[in-house]
Design brief:
Layout lengths: L1 E4 L20 E7 L12 H15 L4 E6 L2 H10 L6 E5 L7 H4 L2 E4 L3 E7 L2 H4 L7 H12 L2 E8 L6 E2 L4 E5 H4 L10 H12 L3 E5 L16 E5 L2 E6 L8 H13 L9 E6 L6 E2 L2 E2 L8 E2 L3 E6 L5 H11 L4 E6 L15 E4 L1
Parallel strand pairs: 1-7, 2-3, 3-4, 6-7, 9-10, 12-13, 17-18
Antiparallel strand pairs: 2-19, 5-6, 8-9, 11-12, 14-15, 16-17
């Protein structure tokens, strides 16, 4: 069943659905195998594929990993790279690029699981060739066989994060950007998030990090690690362009409250000291772009002096899960990291 809404009628919230937190039990994780030569040129694609092998092997210990491939020949090549295909399922859905967090469905829970599909316009119409992945995301949603709510609203999964009990993190730079939903103001956008995702308490951060071509996705800035705790990126160097925006976000989080009017525990994590660049400029390397699986938390690292400190902080916050650092120095050349290329489907 597919239902298209906006303005509101029988929206997911009215039917009892909510967006669950990432640490709630997954049925599986979705990935799209890398291949776009513009995103990952020939000199780095093999390194990126090696990162994917590490992600699949780690995640498949605790859940099904659903991998999008173009065709049977592609599937054979990818399966030969993975040490074991136990708990790995291939789906022949053509995609342009890897960013399933942003173009794929966002899943909801109540007595059952449902999917929401939003408009993907390639981060404010920046990349015309990637707009085709809007259809890839719709094909993913239909493939699940779940009840599907289609929203006439531009939204990427990386622009939001939730604690599962009503509070959402997002950024003004992204969701209020005129290249997304220019006809809607902040109050109207907040109402869309409430009706479709159950976000009855939205915390609006300010700007994102340098090099982020998504206009400030929150999964590079701050993340919930449990219902009452948020990790937040900070920049150590006062002369760096990220210093003031991240400090301002930290101050917003310290003043934020949950639905009961209580403050959150806010834990800072320092950004990588070494600033990574490509021919196109600064790369958005952030430790906040981790992914929480059923048994493992995958944390991007960057061969940086701050890697170990970030891993220690995140390990302390997930005592029931293995915390695995994966060197994403190659993946970040696509302007995204682990969270950007994964999407959870709840159990």
């Amino acid at each position: 069943m597919e239902m298209t809404f906006l303005p509101f009628s029988d929206t997911p919230l009215k039917l009892g659905y909510r967006m669950p937190a990432e640490w709630e039990e997954h049925r599986g994780t979705w990935l799209s195998w890398p291949k776009d030569p513009t995103t990952f040129p020939s000199n780095i694609i093999r390194k990126v594929e090696s990162i994917y092998v590490d992600m699949v092997e780690a995640l498949s210990e605790g859940e099904t990993v659903n991998v999008l491939v173009d065709d049977i020949d592609f599937e054979k090549r990818v399966s030969s790279m993975i040490g074991s295909t136990r708990n790995v399922v291939f789906y022949k859905i053509k995609s342009v690029d890897v960013w399933v967090r942003d173009y794929g469905p966002i899943f909801l829970k109540d007595h059952d699981v449902a999917a929401t599909k939003w408009i993907f316009n390639a981060w404010g119409n920046k990349y015309d060739d990637l707009k085709a992945d809007d259809e890839t995301g719709l094909a993913m949603a239909r493939l699940t066989g779940l009840r599907l709510f289609k929203a006439a609203f531009v939204l990427e999964g990386g622009s939001i994060d939730v604690n599962g009990v009503g509070t959402m993190l997002t950024s003004s730079q992204c969701l209020l950007n005129r290249n997304r939903n220019p006809e809607l103001n902040q109050a109207q956008i907040t109402e869309v998030l409430r009706e479709y995702l159950g976000a009855t308490n939205v915390i609006w951060l300010g700007s994102g990090i340098a090099g982020d071509d998504t206009d400030g996705h929150v999964d590079d800035l701050a993340r919930f690690v449990n219902q009452d705790t948020i990790v937040c990126m900070l920049e150590e160097d006062p002369s760096d362009q990220d210093y003031m925006p991240l400090k301002q976000n930290y101050e917003i989080l310290k003043q934020a409250r949950n639905l009961e009017g209580e403050s959150f525990k806010v834990i800072p994590i320092s950004m990588p000291r070494k600033k990574m660049n490509s021919d196109e400029g600064r790369l958005p390397a952030s430790y906040a772009n981790f992914y929480i699986g059923n048994k493992v938390v995958l944390v991007p690292t960057y061969a940086d002096r701050n890697d170990d400190k970030a891993l220690e902080t995140i390990k302390a916050l997930f005592p029931g899960r293995k915390v695995l650092g994966i060197d994403c120095s190659s993946l970040i050349f696509g302007f995204g990291s682990i969270h950007c290329v994964t999407q959870q489907q709840p159990a």
